[in-house]
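ok new one. same drill as before - structure tokens go in, u give me an amino acid for every spot. 372 of them this time. try not to just spam alanines like last time pls lmao
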């Protein structure tokens, strides 16, 4: 009895001590993180707003946030040196900073997440013509040694997002085949049978790593693709302690202030066709409110950065465009948005059709083989 009591007391004591220790560890980590992030934020170069920031310099760096306008690109004829990449702002550490102008385009974060999801599936689904992942890997190896060029699959963030989605598509297809094509439920259009649902996608650790708040991180130079070594610890801290996101946001806003040009994908919507707008709006209605709210809360920094860009830049940017055109006739801003108006509904239908088609094709081939 006595012993039991003692034991219990001991356990309670131990438990107390343990939780104290872990609480203080958490606190220490927070303090450490706050210092790290603070130090990074205040030592970030390029935070003074430059005069003459709107003068076009020798080199133009288009910081291309993925899915801010599919075909957006600036192209240069002679004399103007242009760099278009999904690299983050840390790329500037490799460029002559004084001679470089930076431009970017931001998009409503919710639409950007949708578009990232759609594009991941679209690219990954192309591999479904293969019978299995082994065969995909073999072909990829062969192609790489043949062309040596850069494909979507070599580029961050697609080099992570596409293989992830591809594995998932194959796993779902295998599961369908295991269940047998005919004993399947009547609900043959059940999306979960064929592709990862949106809510699952946005909550995966990979999405947290590279999609959410992606614009803010890219402009701050804090993606997990950053060239700067210390960026990775800052990033870990910000992902762990949400309140530290404020520091990152401030850096990103100042960077925007210093850019030569900040465009908004949505500003070009006016020029998109009426049809696309109507269908797009309806497709949006199909996404449950809960999921929309979740996307917003996972992208709090991007939401705020986007609001900031909307209020600071939308008025400026038309005038800037005109000014730019006068300054440098060689730079063309192509209208990129005709293709950007893809929407959920059409997309969903086309994916289902594609999968069904591939399913039929594979089956048919097997049947043919049997006959032969
Ligand atoms: C993958 O597909 C190839 C080509 O059809 C086949 O030879 C191979 O045995 C398959 N591998 C597995 C693990 O199923
Ligand atoms: C499919 O629907 C038919 C008729 O509505 C029903 O009799 C059958 O049990 C259903 N099969 C499955 C697997 O749900
Ligand atoms: C970046 O994120 C991806 C996806 O989560 C991960 O696989 C990769 O290892 C990360 N890269 C670095 C340098 O942390």
């Amino acid at each position: 009895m006595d012993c039991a009591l003692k034991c219990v007391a001991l356990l309670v004591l131990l438990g107390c001590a343990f939780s104290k220790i872990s609480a203080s560890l958490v606190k220490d980590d927070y303090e450490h993180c706050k210092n790290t992030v603070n130090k990074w934020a205040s030592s970030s170069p390029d935070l003074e707003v430059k005069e003459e920031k709107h003068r076009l310099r020798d080199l133009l760096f288009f910081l291309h946030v993925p899915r801010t306008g599919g075909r957006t690109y600036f192209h240069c004829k002679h004399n103007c040196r242009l760099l278009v990449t999904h690299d983050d702002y840390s790329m500037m550490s490799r460029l002559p900073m004084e001679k470089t102008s930076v431009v970017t385009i931001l998009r409503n974060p919710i639409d950007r997440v949708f578009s990232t999801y759609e594009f991941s599936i679209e690219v990954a689904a192309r591999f479904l013509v293969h019978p299995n992942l082994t065969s995909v890997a073999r072909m990829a190896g062969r192609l790489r040694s043949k062309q040596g060029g850069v494909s979507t699959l070599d580029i961050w963030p697609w080099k992570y997002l596409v293989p992830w989605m591809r594995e998932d598509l194959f796993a779902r297809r295998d599961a369908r085949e295991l269940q047998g094509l005919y004993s399947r439920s009547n609900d043959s259009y059940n999306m979960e049978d064929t592709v990862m649902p949106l809510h699952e996608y946005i909550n995966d650790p990979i999405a947290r790593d590279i999609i959410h708040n992606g614009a803010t991180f890219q402009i701050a130079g804090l993606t997990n693709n950053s060239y700067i070594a210390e960026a990775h610890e800052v990033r870990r801290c910000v992902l762990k302690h949400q309140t530290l996101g404020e520091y990152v946001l401030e850096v990103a806003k100042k960077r925007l202030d210093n850019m030569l040009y900040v465009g908004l994908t949505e500003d070009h919507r006016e020029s998109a066709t009426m049809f696309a707008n109507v269908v797009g709006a309806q497709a949006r209605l199909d996404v449950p409110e809960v999921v929309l709210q979740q996307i917003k809360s996972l992208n709090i920094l991007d939401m705020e950065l986007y609001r900031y860009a909307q209020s600071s830049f939308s008025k400026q940017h038309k005038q800037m465009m005109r000014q730019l055109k006068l300054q440098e006739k060689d730079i063309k801003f192509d209208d990129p948005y005709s293709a950007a108006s893809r929407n959920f509904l059409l997309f969903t239908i086309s994916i289902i059709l594609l999968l069904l088609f591939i399913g039929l094709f594979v089956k048919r081939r097997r049947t043919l083989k049997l006959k032969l």
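Confidence is low (pLDDT under 50) at residues 270-279, 329-342, 367-372. and btw The longest helix spans residues 2-43.
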